[in-house]
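Narrative progress, year one. The postdoctoral researcher (J.K.) led the effort to move from monomer predictions toward full complexes, under supervision of the PI. The following entry was the first complex the group processed end to end, covering 443 residues in total.
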Amino acid sequence: MTDVDADIEAARAEWLAGAPARSPEVEQARFAGGVPDADALELADINPFNPHLFREDRWHDHFARLRSEDPVHVNELASAGRYWSITTWDAIREAEADWRSFSSEPSIVLGPPIGTPLPKAIDQIGSFISMDPPEHERQRITVRRSTTPAANKLVEPLIRQRVGDVLDGLPVGNTFNWVQHVSVELTGMMLATLFGIPLEDRSKLLRWSDVATTIPEPGGLVESTAQRRAEFAEMLEYFDVLWEKRRAEPGDDLISMLAHGEATRHMTPLQQVGNLMLLIIGGNDTTRNTMSGSVFAFNEFPEQFAAMRADPTLVDNLPHEIIRWQTPLAYMRRTATADCEFRGRHIKRHDQVLLWYVSANRDATVFDDPDRFDLGRRNANRHLSFGTGIHYCMGARLAELQIKVLWEEILQRNMRVELQAAPTRTFSSFIHGYVDVPVRVIR
Ligand code: HEM
């Protein structure tokens, strides 16, 4: 058995030994009976970190009240301790710009209070999205060339070909789930290309992404934390084999870049997992939920689709407006590195701070009639969905390209996508998306 195999075995055993079962998402899942309307709550009781708010699509008035009455708002949960919600556009930009006070370490999602003992395996998993300089930049440089304008230009014909094949293969006249038939299909193929893996293995990446972002619940996509651990152990093994192959024969894919990168090639298998999950979730859940959200938006605002058919140049602004309106990642977490005063609130060292992009993108001081989906919106590209600071999304232009090509090809085929019933949404306060969007295609 080689050292790497021993590492894998140790990591696997550590991993299966168990992570804390009680996460803030699991704690808030107890609101199964439905969340009261914002105006029925005391201001202090408004708590936007609640997967039910998002699954029921009832987050709007909760954030609207916070933006106007308490834009830097404090809550407490047994599983997370005290945390702050920053809800206005300019306050989020201010916090993002100050990474020394508001660090991305140790994690970008709400978690247990700093200092909570975690199994070694969990502790080791890190990715450059949850690192501060200088290590952040050292690792980001390693994979940055995978999504440069030149790289996107090279991959555009392949994206267009695949979009065409998927659209031409859709059942006409029958109801089907747009999420599975289009959004997952297209982003899954894109991921396989970025990772340089066989197309038939793409379902593995998609599965691991879902396992990572879903709250375990009976009858759900993931039934238990133990099941989640077992699936991750499989992923560890899959990537270990790939890593060794690319170490020996590098290609132009993300694994080769990480396996040969100055800052990443000596990483342990568990350390690798962090960046691999970042690239899988970063490249998948986000774009896919924007593709699904665009169908919902055009059905909620059919005059916008009619306008785009009449003037196809409106498709240029579509990626900006739909990424603003959908905001596929509802928030990013920061952690206060010292006691500080922020907009009149006293934030303590180690407090968790949630930057709610989903609220900033509906801030009426920046966006007129913000709940309206409007392709004519001139400042749509001022949305905060990609972040604004040193961690600005590395795949932003690639995501915009995929969304634009999808709708260019739909227009090209004179298609209309008609919603047949209310969509089913993800059960998460972080991933803001859809599980099922039942549609029919009309040509
Ligand atoms: C609509 C689609 C997308 C959205 C809304 C989105 C959103 C985000 C956000 C909010 C961040 C963190 C910003 C911060 O912490 O300040 C981020 C970072 C990142 N995204 Fe995206 N993303 C999208 C698509 C993609 C794609 C297609 C990739 C490709 C692989 C990608 C790769 C990354 C990476 C690697 C980072 C970490 C950057 C860093 O820490 O320096 N994203 N993204």
